[in-house]
Amino acid sequence: MKFRVERDVLAEAVAWTARSIPTRPGTLPQLSGIKMATRSDGLTLSGFDYETSAQVTLLADIADDGEVLVSGRLLADIARALPNQPVDVALDGAKLSLTCGSSRFSLQTMPVEDYPALPDMPEVAGGIDGDVFAAAVAQAATAAGRDDMLPVLTGVKLEIDGQRLSLLATDRFRLSLREIEWRPGQSDLSASALVPARVLADTTRSLGAGSQLNIALAAGGSGGLAGDGLIGFESTSGNGTRRTTTRLIEGAFPNVRQLFPNTSDISAQLEVASLVDAVKRVSLVAGRNTPIRLSFTDVMVTLEAGNGEEAFASESLECTLVGEEISIGFNPSYLLDGLSAISGSHVHIAMTQPARPAAFASMNAPDAQPDLDFRYLLMPLRMQG
Fold it and tell me: Domains of the chain, with CATH numbers?
């Protein structure tokens, strides 16, 4: 094996592949490695942990074909630290050498024959612009759970209904729903998949404008999925081709779509940036698991946190209220997460009563209709006094 590749291209590809490497490979040390293979179509890097696989193929000047397995974390650290010059890589016996300018590294290789075969990609179900899907994942994953004791809630549920693709996530305290158009291979395709939120976020992090993404599902059966419970993502851009497969999360995702209210008696409209800044300031005095109170009147909302005994903060902002005045309390971190996912300049908050969830939606202008393609539902906290 012998090849030359640009430093930035190599460093970014190695970092992306290394995300699928387990931090503790246990009795399978080969899983800590990245497999590098050179063929006529370029350089391919592979990572695998028996749950998620990552593979990237990129352009390189190939002198000799071959394959090698080296420590993924070490390779990522080295590639990131190299000077901005072309990198020459060559296999010399049991060592892999990297030369970049005056920097030279030699890495011990592992038996490449012990590396497991990566899963095959399922059948492609459809495609979508990479940046559109990445933005949708970032919004939906906002509400995904992080408690591994509740694995079903650590996923993002993808629901496919023809040209409509929905992404849902919940951790029991908030709920997100993002709906987008995509290009299915079959116009009547109906399927669903519960995908680990972390894998979705890692997969889409490198998708930019101009990239194309194919989503591959093992289709069939009454539930829309069969086979070995895999989903695959394949993207193509100027940085080459990237493929990810991951096992789907088993279990029944709760029927949360029905929780969004069809109507609301009370709604408020506010500028997002001003509200975010005010929440950040006022929440400085909020104790752990204590709410920040939002009190809405006709033309003003007052934010309050803390108490007079230790620390207290308040701030008022202009708003437009429709319906009765209301005071409602939220977890400040969850509130900021939802506001950060709002893409418009203003936010529409639909409420019914202080003990019922509030629905957040984006608005592109103060008097515009709320954009219901993304909705964020947040449970209120009980307020004292």
Answer: 2-114 (3.10.150.10), 123-256 (3.10.150.10), 260-378 (3.10.150.10)
Name the pLDDT band for 281 (thresholds 50, 70, 90). Answer: very high
55, 241 contact by CB (below 8 A)? no
232-270: b (≥16 Cβ within 10 Å) or e? bbbbbbebbebbbbbbbbeeebeebeeebeeebebbbbb
Secondary structure class of 288 (helix, strand, coil): coil
Instruction: Please tell me the distance from the alpha carbon of residue 319 to that of residue 363, in angstroms, as a whole number.
Output: 13
Q: Which residue has the tokens 């391919």?
A: 44
pLDDT 10s digits, 224-257: 443 458 999 999 877 689 999 999 999 999 999 9
Q: Quick one: pLDDT band at residue 128, thresholds 50, 70, 90?
A: very high
Residues 98, 51: Cα–Cα separation, whole Å: 30
Tokens of 261: 């209210």
Phi and psi at residue 93, to the nearest 5°: 70, -120
What whole-number distance in Å separates Cα of residue 27 and Cα of residue 365? 57
